Amino acid sequence: MGTSDSDTTRLWHMRLGYAGEKALQGLVKKGLLKGATTCKLDFCEHCVLGKQTRVKFGTAVHQTKGILDYVHSDVWGPTKTPSLSGRHWFVTFVDDYSRKSWVYTMKHKSEVLSIFLGWKKMVENQTGRKIKILRSDNGGEYTSDPFFKVCKEEGIGRHFSVRGTPQQNGVAERLNRTLLEKVRCMLSQSGLRTRLGERLKF
């Protein structure tokens, strides 16, 4: 593999949030990576630093038949350093059936319910379907009386992971991990160490 090929592949690797060889291979085959003819990657120190993780843990098994039948949600934070607009947290929502994901940044964890209500209205209007089950951890932002009241009134079932075992909320936790891996890799490569960009779109 020539130096130019290696440099081009590495550049696309970084541009795509430090994507792995398998993801790059599919894009190369489709001719979507201009100038790249191979998906072979050299050692990447930023991936090593940004993607360290714990041993895999078993997750709950269930089946869904349609969009919004089963939604995963999780909150991450606080960051040691806030974003430029003072946000320390983010909340994620993942549709189990389509795996489409939404990310919202927050200044306070108490914003989760209002964000959920706005997100719920948007996705239900767009799809013509209703949320059936919401899975989350047992954090106070999800177990407050107002949150339970909304879910009861809207007929939304609740599934919770066991306290101290975030792996049981695996889908949402994996999304958080993926987002943070990409951010850490980019910060490592750029030499920046502080502010987490608040617009995480993918």
Automatic annotation (TrEMBL):
Record-linked SUPFAM superfamilies: Ribonuclease H-like (SSF53098)
GO molecular function: nucleic acid binding
Source superkingdom: Eukaryota
Pfam families: gag_pre-integrs, rve
Domain Integrase catalytic: 61-202
Any Gene Ontology biological process: DNA integration
The protein's name in its UniProt record: Integrase catalytic domain-containing protein
Organism name: Malus baccata (Siberian crab apple)
